[in-house]
Specification:
Elements: H1 2-33, H2 36-61, H3 65-69, H4 71-93, H5 100-111, H6 119-126, H7 131-157, H8 164-172, H9 175-188, H10 195-202, H11 204-223, H12 229-252, H13 258-268, H14 275-282, H15 287-301, H16 305-312
């Protein structure tokens, strides 16, 4: 038993080193090459348009029926995790003197966390393969909320009243979203993946993992800024501390099995999503505060990854 435990710890330590190694590699490329923005743009394009859709297609079509039965409860708790943020931020900002553009960015950052590019490699490296389906479901639920609730916030607080139609169109044609819809249709028709495709697609998982980690490192390197840290910490405290503490009892006392519980705990701890910076720019919100919040939240999370890995393992 002692030998097995030591081997398990060694394997976990190796995975943690790999996790940090790829993030650091991406960060160094961004800081030393001066081409971090271009590299991140192309890498994200490959991930979003090719690798993540393939992973979604593979994961959903190879999901066990028992995991799919748990999706309704999982989605309800997902919505609670996402919507608690703006609710708490509303009380925080009451009577404040911040301008509307800054308030809008704070609402967006407190709502939408990094639901894919950090949780996905964590799930692939440290959790059961069934966890991928739940990570994808969390991400797709957030995407739909982005189009609906996010557009309302952007139009209300931003300098642009138009633009939500384009955001809705972009979301509906978003490759991961299309891959999920196609997968669910095939599941409904009881159509499975051919054995040869299952083998080929299985190699996509580690590739997606490592490239997603490099993308995280590139993002931190490109956006590294500590301006407006005090304001950003208000969002980070809500998004990454208060919300996990509030939802933890709900998650633990739910009827969900171990894998979705692990995914929900992991997702509740994630920093604001990189997409919030793009969204803030599109609606003429405070882009600087959005970028600072994403950077600070990500930097504060990274040192706790080993602890999180041990908890989830």
């Amino acid at each position: 038993m002692l030998v097995v435990a030591i081997q398990t710890i060694d394997a976990l330590f190796t995975q943690i080193v790999i996790f940090y190694g790829f993030i650091i590699a991406g960060y160094l490329v961004a800081r030393l090459s001066g081409k971090g923005i271009i590299a991140n743009k192309h890498l994200n394009s490959i991930l979003v348009n090719i690798l993540v859709p393939i992973l979604i297609f593979y994961s959903l079509l190879t999901s066990t029926p028992s995991s799919l039965v748990e999706i309704p409860i999982f989605l309800v708790i997902t919505l609670a995790i996402l919507l608690l943020g703006p609710a708490l931020m509303f009380f925080k900002l009451r009577g404040g003197e911040l301008n509307d553009q800054t308030k809008g960015s704070l609402f967006i950052c407190s709502t939408f966390n990094n639901a894919l590019f950090i949780p996905l490699p964590l799930a692939l490296m440290f959790l059961d393969p069934a966890a991928i389906s739940f990570v994808i479901m969390f991400s797709l639920t957030q995407m739909i909320l982005f189009v609906t609730f996010g557009s309302i916030v952007g139009a209300t607080f931003g300098g642009k009243e138009a633009g939500w139609k384009k955001i809705a169109r972009d979301a509906v044609t978003f490759p991961p979203f299309l891959a999920a819809i196609l997968s669910l249709i095939l599941l409904g028709l009881n159509v499975g993946l051919p054995t040869d495709l299952v083998v080929i697609f299985s190699y996509n998982s580690p590739l997606t993992t490592y490239l997603a980690l490099i993308s995280v490192g590139l993002g931190v390197g490109v956006r590294f800024s500590l301006a407006d840290v005090r304001t950003a910490l208000n969002v980070v405290a809500i998004r990454q501390l208060i919300i996990p503490l509030l939802v933890l009892p709900i998650i633990l006392f739910s009827t969900l099995s171990q894998v979705p519980i692990q995914v929900l705990i992991m997702e509740s701890l994630m920093p604001p999503a990189v997409l919030t910076v793009v969204f803030a720019s599109g609606f003429d919100l405070d882009v600087e505060i959005a970028a600072t919040t994403v950077t600070v939240g990500t930097l504060l999370l990274l040192p706790f990854i080993p602890i999180l890995a041990f908890i989830l393992a």
